[in-house]
Specification:
By secondary structure, this protein is mainly α. It has helices at residues 2-5, 38-52, 58-71, 79-89, 94-127, 135-142, 149-155, 158-165, 171-177, 183-193, 201-219, 247-255, 263-279, 327-342, 352-361, 365-376, 380-392, 414-424, 428-441, 446-454, 490-511, 524-535, 538-541, 549-582, 588-606, 608-611, 624-627, 634-652, 655-663, 670-678, 685-701, and strands spanning 222-224, 242-244, 292-295, 300-303, 456-460, 465-468, 477-481. The strands form 3 sheets. It has a 3-stranded mixed beta sheet with strand order 5-7-6. The protein has a two-stranded antiparallel ribbon with strand order 1-2. A two-stranded antiparallel ribbon has the order 3-4. Strand 6 (465-468) and strand 7 form a beta hairpin. The structure holds zinc ion (ZN).
């Protein structure tokens, strides 16, 4: 829903002078080969504009014409209407340009804000605990009123008005020149960026179709564990345990550390299951099928000797051990081919890889790669590996990527916490009333706390809870929280504090922003980092002791190990997408072999020295690799950003004013945001330093 909303917001405070004339704003050279008269028409209309305005406008005229020309299609009009449009809509004097900017900012805020309000209302029955959800409620919830706004704006030519007058930019330009731009210039850049692509509806449909096909492949990829046998043929797992790849398989490995008797055998078996999924040597008959027993060690498949679920109406699959026919890679290839269809319509980011790094993340791929390599090659890795080995009392095995033992026992049991929370917050209303008080405990002044509380509507969530921001200043943010009939429990409270962190960020980053076109934060990692700051102090809100040093130390080590794991996963995802772009006609089998080779290569380089085993393919197990279009690097970047923000908060003391200072920077590049917030660009140093200190503390405590 925020696809369009993300760049757009409101005006009124924009009193700064508009950058004008031959400014230092960039231009992106382009050409449109589909419209044969375009070259002549632009030459002609340029002469007309130069005659009308001063020669100082020449560069702006060139830029505007080239930006419009590259998106103009035959159906938008002939040469005469093109020229007429240009002459009418080029803002050739400062006053007109200022009016144009302000009007767009104001109206887009209202467009986005009202679209958001419609979506929120349409989703109400699905999102809130308000009684049964009828089938048509689901249809309302699935409707996105803003889905065609960008198309509409090209069709009615408002997009061309923007492209004629404001600069499109590449990431390199935003990084190199962005720090010297005024806030006004940044707002202009974000305005133009909204229209940096004109993707035909049929292409969007292909992308959506490939995405949903991949989703449905992934969402039905269950392994029935009672039917997965150990090396010796024994049943290790309880009846009815159905694990979705990869999430549940990975989490089962984590949980198995607590099983002293069978944990290790279970973990080894799950590792093998994962490997067979990646290499596609898994028998097709065992996927989502409780009717067969499977020994992944021998790959033998037999009719289930014991039943743990009701029999299906008809037998699902033939009982053979024929391998899954590379469906995993068929599916991934389809997402790649759909993504590639967008390329010609996205001149400033002409590959999916560029769109992910240059547009969504706004950190160049090369820098992300360096940060991840800095983590996986850190000398801290073997030290922590040694520590894990000592805690496990055995050499590491590859599945120890998901080691889950850096946890301290809290001072309070969950039951004690539940009792405290349910007494304090018997209803959602009680929590709502306490919001100003909670916020003051985070160091917000009474006035600020009240102002924030007044901007948060508390609703009863159907699920565990979420936050929904507003997109115009006249609307409020919504906190959805779950309160049982017996009162709020601790888990619900912990989530509510996290979501309230989002509400606070959303309020600051919209209502206190100088330009609503700069609303928000650079990307979701930033809003998550801020929300987690509040969540991490939830015990203090309850008047309880904050976690002790030991807990903090273990949490840091856990965070480091998770980042080490997911960095390798992200590197595999990145290399696989490059491979697909380098081999556009690859078969699924070639993609399978390439993925396996890439996973082994990254393992051998960064993990084998630590785990003492080569050629492991586990880094390729994440389902996101198949259905999420190069999403995985967001996870390690998110860890790094989270630690950076957290370390800054520790230095600052009171959270409130620091939170506000950070959250009002808006949607600039991650590095600009982070330099403003912490003095340093986004990077791995904060995590590495915190981990080093945690290790020192741990050794000192021994
Ligand atoms: Zn969150």
């Amino acid at each position: 829903m925020r696809l369009f909303l993300i760049f757009l917001l409101f005006a009124s405070l924009c009193s700064a002078p508009i950058a004008f004339g031959d400014d230092n704003m960039p231009s992106v050279a382009t050409k449109n080969q589909n419209v044969p008269w375009m070259k002549d028409a632009t030459d002609k209309v340029k002469g007309e504009l130069l005659a009308k305005y001063s020669a100082g406008q020449s560069a702006r005229i060139d830029r505007g014409l080239s930006q419009v020309a590259q998106f103009w299609r035959n159906e938008d009009g002939d040469a005469a209407s093109f020229q007429e449009f240009i002459v009418e809509n080029f803002a050739g004097d400062p006053a007109t340009l200022a009016t144009l900017f302000n009007r767009f900012q104001h109206l887009l805020e209202h467009l986005n804000g009202h679209m958001q309000e419609i979506s929120r209302e349409f989703r109400q029955q699905a999102d809130l605990d308000l009684g049964p959800v009828l089938p048509f409620d689901e249809l309302f919830a699935g409707y996105d009123p803003s889905a065609h706004v960008v198309d509409d704006f090209f069709n009615n030519k408002l997009a061309f008005v923007v492209l004629l007058n404001f600069p499109l930019t590449t990431l390199q330009q935003r990084l190199a020149q962005g720090p010297t731009w005024t806030r006004q210039q940044w707002a202009e850049v974000r305005l133009a960026q909204t229209f940096s692509k004109r993707i035909p509806a049929s292409v969007n449909l292909d992308v959506a179709r490939a995405g949903s096909e991949a989703d449905s492949y992934i969402s039905q990829y269950n392994i029935w564990m009672f039917h997965v046998l150990a090396q010796n043929g024994q049943r290790l797992f309880p009846p009815k345990l159905r694990l979705l790849s990869h999430w549940n398989l990975r989490d089962e490995i984590k949980a198995d550390y607590a099983d002293a008797q069978n944990g290790l055998a279970k973990q080894r078996t799950i590792q093998l299951v994962m490997e067979r999924i990646i290499t596609q040597t898994i028998p097709a008959a065992v996927i989502n099928n409780p009717e067969v027993d499977w020994n992944p060690w021998t790959n033998e498949v037999t009719p289930a000797a014991q039943r743990d679920t009701d029999p299906p109406p008809s037998p699902q699959k033939q009982i053979t051990n024929a391998a899954e026919p590379s469906t995993r890679y068929v599916t991934l290839l389809k997402t790649y081919r759909a993504a590639r269809e967008v390329d010609p319509f996205s001149p400033t980011a002409p590959t999916l890889i560029a769109r992910r790094f240059d547009e969504d993340r706004e950190i160049p791929e090369q820098r992300v790669r360096q940060m991840l390599q800095q983590v996986v090659t850190s000398p801290l890795v073997p030290k922590i590996a040694k520590l894990i080995q000592a805690r496990l009392g055995r050499p590491l095995e590859p599945f120890d990527l998901w080691y889950d033992g850096f946890r301290a026992r809290g001072a309070y049991t969950e039951a004690q916490l539940d009792a405290i929370v349910s007494k304090r917050y018997p209803t959602a209303e009680a929590y709502k009333k306490d919001i100003p008080n909670i916020l003051m405990k985070f160091g917000f002044t009474p006035e600020k706390a009240q102002y924030l509380a007044d901007n948060i509507v508390v609703d009863p969530a159907r699920g565990s809870g979420h936050a929904m921001g507003a997109s115009m200043r006249s609307a409020k943010t919504h906190l959805r929280t779950r309160v049982e009939s017996t009162g709020m429990n601790y888990k619900g409270f912990n989530i509510a504090v996290h979501e309230m962190g989002h509400n606070v960020e959303q309020t600051f980053s919209l209502n206190e922003m100088d330009y609503t076109l700069l609303e928000g934060v650079p990307n979701t990692a930033f809003t998550e980092a801020l929300a987690m700051i509040l969540q991490g102090h939830d015990l203090e809100v309850l008047g309880l002791a904050k976690p002790d040093e030991q807990t903090e130390t273990l949490r840091t080590l856990n965070d480091f190990w998770n980042t080490y794991e997911i960095s390798g996963v992200a590197l595999v995802d990145m290399d696989v997408w490059h491979w697909m772009y380098d081999h556009p006609n690859a078969t699924p089998e070639q993609l399978r072999d390439a993925t396996v080779a890439i996973a082994k290569e990254i393992w051998n380089q960064y993990y084998a020295p630590v785990f003492g085993k080569t050629d492991v393919v586990l880094l390729a197990i994440y389902s996101h690799m198949i259905d999420s279009f190069l999403y995985l690097p967001d996870y390690p970047i998110g860890h790094l950003i989270g630690v950076q923000v957290e370390e800054q908060m520790k230095k600052a003391g009171a959270i409130g004013p620091e939170f506000e200072r950070m959250a009002t920077m808006g949607h600039v590049t991650p590095d600009m945001w982070m330099i403003h917030a912490t003095g340093k660009p986004v990077g791995a140093e904060a995590l590495l330093t915190a981990t080093e200190q945690a290790l020192t503390r741990l050794n000192a405590a021994k």
